[in-house]
């Protein structure tokens, strides 16, 4: 049986096309300090609408008082979460899941892969790496979205690059957007990226995850160096 705790909505803001950022205030609850590993998730619940699983997009902080989430509509619960206003209540469990074993990447280069809302737990990894950038080798993020307007955290990409994180973006359905960048699947753009000695973290739809894993293993990266957050 889940142990539920009340949290308070601090902000609900547009994050990208069809995506909303939800920020929950956890100060004064037993949830403070419970998020320990990037890639972990919690269960959120609203009365009459049941519960859902949501990855924490912010970095683990021992004394952090806010959790950030990236929401994509589709279910009654998520649709209602996207309509909340500051001060309203949301019930949450403690973080669950093994998350990404970031400690294994210390001293190594890191390859990150995310598509759509799958950037949420990968952002938690990125923010954790930024806090100790010198502890890791080269870091590259391969980030895919359906359209050019569907990239979440657009305003943060420059900060990531300034921290020495190479960002490779690709769009699967550019249409008539005028997009001049890369198109197609993220794994198609590995190019000459070195994989020897690297550690990879992946989040996205199952077909994308498998495609990236196949591409990395074909290049010689062992399966034990490739990690999912579940």
From TrEMBL:
Pfam families in the cross-refs: NAD_binding_1
Domain FAD-binding FR-type intervals: 2-102
Transmembrane segments: none
GO biological process annotation, one example: pyrimidine nucleotide biosynthetic process
GO molecular function, one term: 2 iron, 2 sulfur cluster binding
InterPro entries attached to this UniProt entry: Cyt_c3_hydrogenase_gsu (IPR012165), FAD-bd_FR_type (IPR017927), Flavoprot_Pyr_Nucl_cyt_Rdtase (IPR001709), FNR_nucleotide-bd (IPR039261), OxRdtase_FAD/NAD-bd (IPR001433), Riboflavin_synthase-like_b-brl (IPR017938)
Name this polypeptide is given: NAD-binding oxidoreductase
């Amino acid at each position: 049986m889940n142990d539920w705790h009340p949290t308070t909505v601090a902000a609900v803001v547009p994050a990208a096309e069809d995506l909303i950022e939800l920020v929950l205030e956890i100060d004064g609850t037993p949830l403070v300090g419970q998020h320990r590993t990037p890639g972990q998730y919690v269960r959120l619940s609203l009365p009459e609408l049941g519960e859902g699983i949501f990855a924490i997009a912010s970095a683990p902080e021992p004394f952090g008082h806010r959790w950030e989430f990236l929401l994509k509509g589709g279910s009654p619960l998520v649709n209602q979460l996207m309509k909340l206003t500051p001060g309203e209540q949301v019930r949450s469990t403690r973080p669950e899941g093994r998350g990404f074993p970031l400690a294994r990447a210390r001293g190594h280069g890191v390859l990150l892969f995310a598509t759509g809302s799958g950037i949420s737990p990968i952002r938690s990894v990125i923010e954790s790496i930024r806090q100790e950038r010198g502890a890791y080798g080269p870091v590259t993020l391969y980030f895919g979205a359906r359209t050019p307007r569907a990239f979440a955290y657009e305003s943060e990409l420059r900060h990531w690059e300034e921290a020495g994180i190479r960002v490779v973006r690709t769009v699967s359905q550019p249409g008539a957007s005028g997009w001049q960048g890369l198109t197609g699947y993220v794994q198609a753009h590995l190019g000459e990226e070195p994989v020897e000695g690297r550690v990879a973290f992946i989040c996205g739809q199952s077909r994308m995850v498998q495609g990236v894993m196949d591409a990395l293993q074909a290049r010689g990266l062992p399966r034990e160096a490739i990690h999912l957050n579940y």
